[in-house]
Amino acid sequence: MPVRSEVIHPYDWVKVGAYAKYIWTSGLTVKFPNDTRLWFRVLHSPVVLEWAVLDKQGDIVHLNVTLFINGTAYILPPGVTVFEAEYRDVIYRKTLFFDVDLYTREASLDGQPVGKTFFWAEPYATPGEEFIVSSPPSEPIVGNVTYVKTWNHPAVGKEIRIYGVYALQPDPYVCASYVFSWYTGVVIEPTLLTPWVVPPEKIGNFEGMFPNGTVFNVTRYAGEPVGTNLGLDEHDVIFELSETNIDISVESTPEPEATDAGIWKYLPYAFIATFIGLVATFLIVRRRK
Amino acid sequence: MSVGTALALTSMFFASFVYPVMALTDWDDDYSPDHTAYAYVAGAYVYYPPPLGYYDQAHNGSITEGNVIRYAFTRFRGFNNLDVEVYNLPFNLANHTGKYKIYSYDDIWFIETYTDSGYGTIPQSSVTVEIGPPGIQ
Fold first, then answer.
1. Is residue B13 situated within a structural domain?
2. A48 in helix, strand or coil?
3. Which end of chain A is more exposed for a tag (fewer CB within 10 A), N or C?
4. Can you tell me the distance from the alpha carbon of A69 to that of A191, in angstroms, rounded to the nearest whole number?
């Protein structure tokens, strides 16, 4: 039996109605275009990030992307402190419509190109491979594939095969990890990033660290199209998959036991070779007599 | 008691009616759901709105698991009363290690300690602890 990567055509799952939901369970801050911020201190339900395929025309996938937060928040116009701020129950819902190229992941929002997105990525990644997480104009965020493994996912309820990506770069600063379905490329754990420039008087208060322990100053944080346009006001928020109708499980097309097939598929050839050998031996022995 | 001390105490007492002065010393800790990451945070505050700030912040974050294969770190952050981040300092950790540090940044409303061993939910190995005035924890 062929392995799933040989029978499933990549991106076959991209159909109208395909969706995935992700959750985040801690408080966070969102920002409106007028710089008023909502600082959610208490959540009445997990923060939900959801995307769904609305349409597909050629290689372009039309996506509905929604961020939903229900909680109690400080309402902070610019310059207002928590002492002065209104603190009440708030529902925040923001929906965006992205057009995403299925193969390059380049997206546009309201007709404006916004760079690569990561609702899905290339399937069948291998450890060590370079991975472009996102490409805001002129400043790509680049990581590496760090592992491939099979994992019994609590939300899916089945084993899924995944690969992980880790990105660490000093300027603009990124320290983020991602998990994707190995067979389909669907993102399992996206990290949303929003840009922020460290005020000059605060430079030195923000640091990053390379794996070898070398410390560096952070002067600005990187953003990517999804987190930035949804209004998040956090350096990074890691969402976790909670629900999807896309088949990302291993069970639906299990990988075969490769060793058995490797041995037994040569059996007919061995039989023919043995038969020819025996006939030849018989004929030679008979002629010598 | 000197006249100067008396004057200072009197000024602070009456200032407390004008400014929302707040003094507290508190700590909190938490394990990740699978007990592989641990964060402890402690703070001592005497909070006066700027420019009369006095603040100490103590953080401790550690990783208790023994199979960190990607990365592990703890991150110490402080925020002011505008919910604007004032400092953000990560430290790499190895298996069964931690980091403890005390800061004296001005203008801190609450502090957060976060540890993560880089697995996301595979397994769940991260924890966040916040400490600050009532309503923060």
1. no
2. strand
3. C
4. 17
Q: Do A80 and B49 touch (CB under 8 A)?
A: no
A35 touches chain B (CB under 8 A): no
For residue A85, give the DSSP letter.
S
Q: Which domain holds residue A278?
A: 257-289
Tell me if ipTM is over 0.85: no
Asked if the C-beta of A54 comes within 8 angstroms of chain B's C-beta atoms, the answer is no
Q: Do A147 and B82 touch (CB under 8 A)?
A: no
Q: Kindly identify which residue of chain B lies nearest to residue A72, measuring between CA atoms.
A: B135
- Please indicate, yes or no, whether residues A176 and A264 belong to a single structural domain of this protein: no
- The verdict on residue B104 lying in a domain is yes
Distance CA B98, CA B115 (A): 9
How many structural domains is chain A composed of? Answer: 2
Is B92 within the bounds of a domain?
yes
Tens digit of pLDDT at every position of chain B (137 positions): 455 445 444 544 444 444 444 545 667 787 777 777 787 777 665 555 555 555 678 888 888 876 666 678 889 999 988 889 999 999 988 888 889 988 888 888 888 888 887 665 555 667 888 887 766 65
Same domain for A101 and A123: yes
pTM: 0.79
Q: Count of A–B CB contacts within 8 Å?
A: 68
- Shortest Cα distance, chain B CAs vs residue A79, angstroms: 7
Strands (E), chain A: 19-24, 29-31, 37-43, 47-57, 60-76, 86-101, 106-109, 112-116, 130-134, 141-152, 159-170, 173-181, 187-189, 191-193, 196-197, 207-209, 215-217, 220-221, 236-238, 240-244
Decide if B136 touches A, using CB distance below 8 A.
yes
Residues 14-33 of B with CB under 8 A from A: 20
Full residue range of the structural domain in which residue B69 is found: 21-131
CB contact under 8 A, A207 and B89: yes
Kindly state whether residues A126 and A216 are assigned to the same domain: yes
Inform me whether the C-beta atom of residue B128 falls under 8 Å from chain A C-beta atoms.
yes
